[in-house]
Amino acid sequence: MMRLHIAWLAAPALAFFLLVFALPLGVLLFGSLRGAEGWTLAGYADFLGEAYSWAVIGRTLKLATLTTLICLLLGYPAAFAMARTRGIAQSLLVAAMLLPLSLSVIVKAFGWTVLLRRNGVVNDLLVWSGIVEEPIRLIFTEAGLLIGITNIFLPFMVLPIFSVVRQIDGRLTDAAATLGGGPFHVFTRVTVPLTMPGVAAGVTLVFSMAIAAYVIPTLLMGDRYQTLSTTIATSFLYLQAPQRGSVAGVVLLAMSLVVVVGSAVLAKRLRRA
Fold first, then answer.
1. Which of 39, 71, 225, 250 has the fewest C-beta atoms lying within 10 Å of its C-beta?
2. 251-257 — which CB contacts under 8 Å span 24+ positions?
3. pTM above the 0.90 mark?
4. Number of domains in the chain
């Protein structure tokens, strides 16, 4: 009886989850199966039968994958640097990661449109350092998009890894070194497996947000750079094709779930190994 009363405490959270998450997904799924002639899979056949749709899917996966990899390469050492500092220095580094999260994605994306233009700060630094002789085009290019989206999503990679690294017992690496392990061996066989939960969480967060990003590609690349998220918006707002937009949404959701579940399983296996 007591367990039943305790279970009821989860009812508000469950109702909220069903209302704001499960119900919209259900509507999206039914919309992808509902055409002018009733229930049909023609929407999936039409969408997946177009070469243009596969190009959009490939572009979406490419953007999300590159963003996740760059964030991981930059965020992994940054998380260790934050975890190894102490006192006020660590507080300042954590604040530097958290403060940008208080700004809207739209504000940050607009900021990068200013920084990346020909007379912006980025081009000024490149010319001043001698890397380039004259300003180069960065806005409305994939390079500029990767710079902006990586900067915006980087905290979501650093913070989960940082939270795990700071809990690692330093005596474990000392013990491994005492037993004859070299720095590379200790790092790959002890440190990396212990940080896998943080890596999996960071990869899941960054990939999920990058694959569904709409505002950032629209502002930094324009409407000509079509991803699944922009295809969904175009289908509903301009083409008046709700079934096509629903199909694209379901495809986007399926891709996200595959990567999220796959990264969690892979991280679990690597940690066991």
1. 39
2. 251/47, 251/48, 251/57, 252/60, 252/211, 252/212, 252/228, 253/25, 253/28, 255/57, 255/60, 255/61, 255/211, 255/228, 256/207, 256/208, 256/211, 256/212
3. no
4. 1
